[in-house]
Amino acid sequence: MGKQALAEPDLPREKVQGIQCPTLIAAGDQDDYTKLEHFVEIYHLLPHGELAIVPGCGHTVFKCNPNLMVELVEHFLQQ
User: Is residue 12 part of a domain?
Assistant: First the structure.
């Protein structure tokens, strides 16, 4: 894995804070591509954000636990 993969995502804070629609962020607690702290930081910047940390999964949470992800997305969309 390259150094760039472990670097902080290049997302301007102002652009993330400007997202006004409800946004769901899903991340695996075993992700070795993007640090969990980055997902949490982005979540805190979102005015209407929700964060789901999927246990036992890496970067591809939909592939790792598709049933749980379907439930999470359905719940998010029904709110």
Answer: no
- 15 within some domain: no
CA pair distance 40, 4, nearest whole angstrom: 19
61 domain residue, yes or no: yes
**Dihedral sign for Cα atoms in the order 1, 34, 78, 75:** positive
Q: How many CA atoms are closer than 13 Å to the CA of 14, on its beta-carbon side?
A: 0
- Output the tens digit of pLDDT for each of the chain's 79 residues: 444 444 556 678 899 999 999 999 999 999 999 999 999 999 999 999 999 999 999 999 999 999 999 999 999 999 8
Number of domains in the chain: 1
